[in-house]
User: What shape does this take?
Amino acid sequence: MIPYADFTYFGLLLYAAVPTLILGLFGKAGWRWATLITAGMLLVQYHGLLNIRPHFPVREIWIVIGFAVWQWATVWVFAKSGARGGWPFYVAIAASLLPLAASKFFPVVSPGSEFGFLGISYITFRALDVVICLRDKVIALPGTLDFLMFLFFFPTISAGPIDRYQRFAVEWRKTRTRAEFLVDLDGAVHRIFRGFFYKFILAALIKQYWLERAASSGSFTALVSYMYAYSFYLFFDFAGYSAFAIALSYLFGVHTPENFDRPFLARNIRDFWNRWHITLSFWFRDHVYMRFLYAAMRGKWFAHKEVAPIAGYFLAFGLMGLWHGPELHYIAYGFYQAVLLSAFHIFSRWNKVHRYWRDGLASRVVAIFITFQFVCVGLLIFSGRIGAAPLPHFASKIEHADCAVISGWIWDKNDMDAEVNIELWDRDQYVMSFPANQFRLDLVDAGYGNGRHAFKIPTPPQLRGQGPHTIHLRVAGTKQELTDSPRVIRCQ
Assistant: This one.
C-alpha cells in the first residue's frame, strides 16, 4: 500500500486520526499512542509479499524488521566502540548503506528478484544521520524505541520529508496540552487541504490533460511540452504528498520540516536547491558537501581554492543521482545539477568583482525565467523520457476471441469520445478493419467517455478454418496492440 496515493489510504488513516483527535483534545495523544499507531500502520503497509528470489516470496514486514535490527546493531556497535572517526566511522557508514545498495543493485544482477521496501532510501538517510551525529559527538546513543520511531515514524516513512534525529527526539516524546494540540491541529488542517488541492486536483489534471498527452507523441514539440508538464506535475504531486506527511506529523506532535518553498520562483540554481526537496538538499549539503569542503580546505587538497567547492558539487549531486537509482538518467541528472551549480559558483564569484548582473526588478524576473528553464531541463533528464518511445495512450481489452465472435473495447485517453478504428491480423496477414463504436453503459460508468468504444464482430470465415490462428488486434495505422493481444483461435 502506497501512502497518500489514493482515497483508500485516507480511509484507513481515519482509524488512526479520529482516536488521535479525541485523545488530543484531552491532552492524551502522546508518544505511547504514536508508537502504537506507527506499529499498526507498518503491519498494514508492509503486509504484502516480496519475491526475494523468483518463486520465493517473503512478507515485506520481515524485511522491514530485519532492516531495523541491522541499523540498530550498526548504531549500537559504533557507539559502544567509542563512535570514533577514521575506519570505524566509515565501516558504520558502509554498514548502514548496505541494505539500500542491495535494494538498488540486487534486481540488476538478479533479474526477477526483489529486495528492500517502500521508503528504504529515506529511512537509510535517517540512520546515516544518527551515525554521523554520534561521530560528531552531538548526540548520545539513542534509546532503542527512540531510534526505531525516528526511522519508522509512519507519516514520513515512504518519501520523507527527511527529519533530523536531534530535532525529532525532542518533539516526539513531548507531552502536549490541549491548547498545544489545537495549534498543531490547525497546522495539520491547513496542510491537509493544501495536499488535496495539489495532489488530487492540480497534479491529477496536469497528468490527465497535459502530461499523458505529451508523452504519447514522439515529436520534439511534444517532448518540450512534456518537460513543462512533468515539472509542474512532479512539484504538485510531491509537494502534495509532503503536505500530507507534515500534516499527519503535526497531529502526533512532530513538526516535520517543510520540503518545498515556491521553488519555481528561484532566482538561481543555488536558490532553487534551497527551495526544492529542502530536507534532501540540506541533508546532502550538511553531511556531504560541507564535510568534503572542510576536509579539502583543511588538508589543502587542491592548489586553487575554487576547485574544492566545485568538486564538492560533483560529489554531492553525483551521490544524489546514484541514490535515486543506478539508471543512467538519474546519474546524468545528478551531474547536470553539479554542472549548473559549478557554473553559477564561478559566475557569482566573477560578478562580485565586475558587477555585471545587478539586482533589480527586471533582473529578478529574467533570473527567475532563466532558472526555471534550466530546472525544467533537469527534471526532463530525471524523468527518463529523453530518447524513450512514446507512451501508449489507449486503454483497451479483448474480452472474447473464439470461433463465433471477437469482442472487447478500446478508449483513447487523449480524445475521450473519439471513435478508434481497429485492424485484425492473422499473424502477419491483414484480415480486416472495423470501428470500436458500440455503446456500453459499463464503459460510461467506468469513466470511459461517452461509452461508444466497444466492438463485437463475427469471427471472419478465414479464421474458422484449419488452425490454430494467432490473431492480433491493433490500433489502425499503427503496430500498437490491444491489451491481451495476440489471442489464439482454435476451431474444431
Remarks:
- Residues 178-215 form the longest helix (38 residues).
- The beta strands are 49-53, 56-59, 394-401, 405-412, 420-426, 429-436, 438-439, 452-458, 469-475, 487-489.
- The chain has three domains: 7-251, 263-383, 394-489.
